[in-house]
Write a structure and sequence with these properties.
Keywords: Isomerase, Magnesium, Metal-binding, Phosphoprotein. One of its GO terms (biological process) is carbohydrate metabolic process. GO terms for molecular function: metal ion binding; phosphomannomutase activity. Belongs to the phosphohexose mutase family. It is a single chain. This protein is of the alpha/beta class and 452 residues long. It folds into four domains: 138 residues, Alpha-D-Glucose-1,6-Bisphosphate, subunit A, domain 3 (Alpha-D-Glucose-1,6-Bisphosphate, Chain A, domain 3, 3-Layer(aba) Sandwich), CATH 3.40.120; 102 residues, Alpha-D-Glucose-1,6-Bisphosphate, Chain A, domain 3, CATH 3.40.120.10; 105 residues, Alpha-D-Glucose-1,6-Bisphosphate, subunit A, domain 3 (Alpha-D-Glucose-1,6-Bisphosphate, Chain A, domain 3); 82 residues, TATA-Binding Protein. The chain contains 14 helices and 23 strands. Strands 1, 2, 3, 4, 5, 6 and 7 form a seven-stranded mixed sheet that branches. Strands 18, 19, 20, 21, 22 and 23 form a six-stranded antiparallel sheet that branches. The protein is globular and about 65 Å long.
């Protein structure tokens, strides 16, 4: 088997269907996954998104799993967080077929152990890749069985036990599903017996993404949602990515609410339930997040970017919640897995439990100006980072750490983080400061070094 490092990424397997990924290869991945988890579990749960290639690939993976004597539970169409729910509720390792927000020609596999514990490069993915590259050994015993089970109603019911929306004031909510899996899950979770009027945008499941990319991190993909919120006079707008594990929020004026503000809002609500608890935030979230957590008696803990680091730190510290700048939100009560739906429910609850508009509610969680993530294509990432470090190292009042890339704190002038991409020749820059002018000045200074 040829080198698979191009498609076995840091956190998942992902590639172009027909070129890098096909059913025969996915069958091998299924068998290799079965060998990895066989000592701990006799069964695997499998779900898939709405991409045209997903059902066939999910079936191929199931063939690989059963070829090694393990049983399979197929839950069919699912969001990624619904698959995590199934893994937690059924206490089975899981496989989710999705390429999230990637274009239609891509697909991929997100894997987890029982209880939705992550499988990344250092926790099994590299071993799976090696097994497939070297050739999966034959199994002489009886093949496993395949059964089907619909988990959507159980998933919706469980989320409703975590955030009770029955008593909130009536809300009009525009949801842009981006033709992704939120079109499947939102009606089940938010659409029955709640004082919520859902205005649907692009709920038709369509893996060709005919309206826009299912990537709300790109402002261009929020335009339709923002316009619809203003048009219908909605209280809030929600945009989900393709596999519906991330959720972005816009207020009643159509203005985006930063993921850091959402993380702070959810953290405050979780701390009200469990005073003094630990909250995880990655190092690119706004400084407002740890400040607000501390002000509400919580214990903020900073981590590297990436779900495996967040989940690992949550397990280590017993944290009740974790938030990332990319709109991934993790909950201890959801097996430490990320669920955009549960974060959205917290926002709806916070909004519906009082009379102020979301713009006013969010203002208390927004303290600083930010650049957003700025990418630069560079040939020598290490040399460029070192040049930036040298430029700031000797300045008074500046602190530097290298927990994840290069983080430079200039005190009242602001801070920035410069990180290399795991998969592309890019440096990613995030800058935060007291105001827009400070952010622009610092951004321009760093980029002048990075881009030469």
């Amino acid at each position: 088997m040829s080198d698979l490092s191009a498609i076995v990424k840091a956190y998942d397997i992902r590639g172009v269907v027909g070129e890098q990924l096909n059913e025969d290869l996915v069958t091998d991945f299924g068998a290799a996954f079965a060998l990895l988890i066989k000592p701990d579990s006799p069964s695997v749960v499998i779900g898939h998104d709405m991409r045209e290639s997903s059902p066939g690939l999910a079936d191929a993976f199931a063939r690989g799993v059963t070829s090694q004597g393990l049983d399979v539970v197929m839950i069919g169409l699912a969001s990624t967080d619904e698959l995590y729910f199934a893994s937690g509720r059924l206490n089975m390792p899981g496989a989710m077929f999705t390429a999230s927000h990637n274009p239609a020609r891509y697909n991929g596999i997100k894997l987890c152990r029982a209880g939705a514990a992550p499988v990344g490069q250092e926790s099994g993915l590299a071993e799976i890749r090696d097994t497939v590259e070297q050739g999966v050994p034959e199994f002489a015993g009886q093949p496993g069985t395949v059964t089907e089970r619909d988990m959507l109603a159980d998933y919706a019911q469980y989320l409703r036990t975590l955030v009770d929306l029955r008593g909130i004031r009536p809300l009009k909510v525009v949801v842009d599903a981006g033709n992704g899996m939120a079109g499947h899950t939102v009606p089940a979770v938010l659409g029955q017996g709640l004082p919520i009027e859902i205005v649907q945008l692009y709920f038709e499941l369509d893996g060709s993404f005919p309206n826009h990319e299912a990537n709300p991190l790109d402002p261009a993909n929020l335009v339709d949602l923002q316009a619809k919120v203003r048009e219908v006079g909605a209280d809030v707008g929600l945009a989900f990515d393709g596999d519906a594990d991330r959720c972005f929020v816009v207020d009643g004026d159509g203005q985006p609410v930063s993921p850091s503000a959402v993380a702070a809002l959810v953290a405050v609500r979780e701390l009200a339930k469990e005073p003094g608890a630990t909250i995880i935030h990655n190092l690119i979230t706004s400084k407002a997040v740890p400040e607000i957590v501390s002000e509400h008696g919580g214990n903020p803990v900073r981590t590297r970017v990436g779900h495996s680091f967040i989940k690992e730190k949550m397990a280590e510290t017993g944290a009740i919640f974790g938030g990332e700048h990319s709109a991934h939100y993790y909950f201890r009560d959801f097996w430490r897995a990320d669920t955009g739906m549960l974060a959205a429910m917290h926002v709806l609850a916070a909004l519906g439990e009082q009379d102020r508009p979301l713009s006013e509610l969010a203002r208390r969680f927004n303290r600083y100006a930010a650049s957003g993530e700025l990418n630069s294509t560079v040939e020598d990432q290490v040399a460029r980072q070192l040049a930036v470090k040298d430029a700031f190292a000797d300045r008074s009042g500046v602190s530097i750490d290298e927990l994840d890339g290069l983080t430079v704190d200039l005190g009242e002038r602001g801070w920035f983080n410069l990180r290399a991409s795991n998969t592309e020749p890019l440096l990613r820059l995030n800058v935060e400061g007291p105001d827009d002018a400070s952010v622009k000045a610092l951004t321009d200074e760093v980029l002048s070094i990075v881009r030469g």
